[in-house]
Amino acid sequence: MSSLNFYKNCQSEEFLWLKKESMANADQGCKKNRHEKFYSVEASSKNLPKKYSTDEDLISQIREMAKLTVRLQTNIDPQSIRFGTGLIQRVRKERGKHGKSCPDKTCTKGEGHVYYVITVTTVYHVVSSQNEAEKTEVLPFFDQEGLKDDSKAFSVYKLLETDKETDNFDWCAIECVTHSEELVKDFSDAIENLERLQKATYSKYNCDTEKFVVMIGHPHGGPKKVSFGTWSRKQTLKEIRSTQDWCQYRHDTPSCPGSSGSPVLILGQPLCGYGYWFGHPHNHSAWDKEEHETVTSIGANSMAPST
């Protein structure tokens, strides 16, 4: 089955949210309306299936992934706003110098100052062009209604790679810029912790038959939510080598408009590094209206992490 057929009955969850409504009011116009299956990050551990409810490594892994989950807001025009979700994949330090200035258009610091580039993975239908990338704002740590801190938001300046080589155009990354050393430390620590916990849970669940899935996102552009499900099948789109392939999963984890780009944790899936393309997790992509299943973006299955 080709990747295009894999998407035959799917609808993306791109959503032009014309009113900045809270999650509490969003269910009135939501056709999917599975909001009772969304849990806050704080409450998620209490709602895990019994089999996993006492696993501190998994609980911590969900929390660390949540720290790296961000809301995307693309201001298409003054009346139209698109919400999506992304995962902070990598953070690197840069210094402005001759021929390489700070990409923050509002920056007033002189040449030679330090800034930080943050790479966020999402899906192509959330940010589909360089023009849209430049209209996108990234908001971290939006975990509760009424506690949104816009001062921590950072701007996008560049659209990076997509998965065009597989004829499946729904994974991409964007680059953002910040000068906040505090934010960068928080993100760097979370990436390091997430890699460590990924190895720990892989060693426990690589033969697990439950096919457990965790998704973290910003449905309807509201506060961060966690949802649980199981995957039903995996399709390999491209084999890179004998120990690695690019693939997609179908699963039943609840999602809503605004969830597009949400990181998807496939428990027991082998990944080999969150900071690089070859190890990136899957992002939420689409909804199959006929099979009533959710479809992930392309992602990597790789060799078992070393211990």
Q: What would you say this structure looks like, in words?
A:
This protein is of the alpha+beta class and 307 residues long. Helices cover 17% and strands 35% of the residues. The chain has 6 helices and 14 strands. It has a 6-stranded antiparallel beta barrel with strand order 8-9-10-13-12-11. A 6-stranded antiparallel beta barrel has the order 2-3-4-7-6-5. α4 (56-67) runs antiparallel to α6 (181-205). The model is unreliable at 1-24 and 303-307 (pLDDT under 50).
Largest sheet: 6 strands, antiparallel, barrel
End-to-end distance: 36 Å
Write down the Rg: 18 Å
Q: Give me the secondary-structure category.
A: alpha+beta
The tally of helices reads 6
Average pLDDT across residues? 81
Proportion in β-strands: 25-35%
- Fraction of residues in helix: 10-25%
Number of strands: 14
Instruction: State the assembly state of the protein chains.
Output: single chain
Strand order, largest beta sheet? 8-9-10-13-12-11
Poorly predicted sequence stretches spanning 5 or more consecutive residues: 1-24, 303-307
Shape: globular
SSE order, as H and E? HEHHHEEEHEEEHEEEEEEE
InterPro entries: Peptidase_S1_PA, Peptidase_S1_PA_chymotrypsin
Pfam families: Trypsin_2 (PF13365)
Name the descriptors.
307 residues; alpha+beta; 6-stranded antiparallel beta barrel; 6-stranded antiparallel barrel; 6 helices; 17% helix; globular; disordered C terminus
Give a quick precis of the structure.
By secondary structure, the chain is an alpha+beta fold.
